[in-house]
Amino acid sequence: MQIQGLGNVNGAQRVTNAHGPHNARPAPHVRGDSLNIDQLDISPEADLVSRARDLPDVRQERIDSIRAQIEAGTYETEAKLNAALSSLLDEIA
To answer: If you average pLDDT over every residue of the chain, what do you get?
Structure first.
């Protein structure tokens, strides 16, 4: 494609406010049962994340104590693991 010359160049056009507020119409009033209400649906995953954020902060001293017990071989009992899992599931559910 070859472009030769300036072609049809016009000056600036006048700016008008054709759609200004004076042309706006108020929204119709809605009465009774036909009122639209916004609704928010939260997925189960998002609900779980929200509840996890509400859990108490980590107690580092408790974690250190349990780690020491695991390293010593004294924490890996079936009863303690089941109790810890039950407690965790109760907090999340």
So the answer is: 79
The answer to whether residue 66 is domain-embedded is yes
Identify whether 3 is part of a domain: no
Residue with tokens 């020491």: 68
Q: Indicate whether 63 pLDDT > 70.
A: yes
Confirm whether 72 is domain-assigned: yes
For residue 77, give its domain range.
44-93
Please give the sequence-ordered ranges of beta strands (E in DSSP) within 19-77, or none if there are none.
Answer: none
Q: Is 0.85 surpassed by the pTM of this model?
A: no
Q: Any idea which residue has 């700016």 for tokens?
A: 15
Say which amino acid occupies 22: H
51 within 8 A of 92, measured Cβ to Cβ: yes
Q: Which helix (H) or strand (E) holds 62?
A: helix 60-72
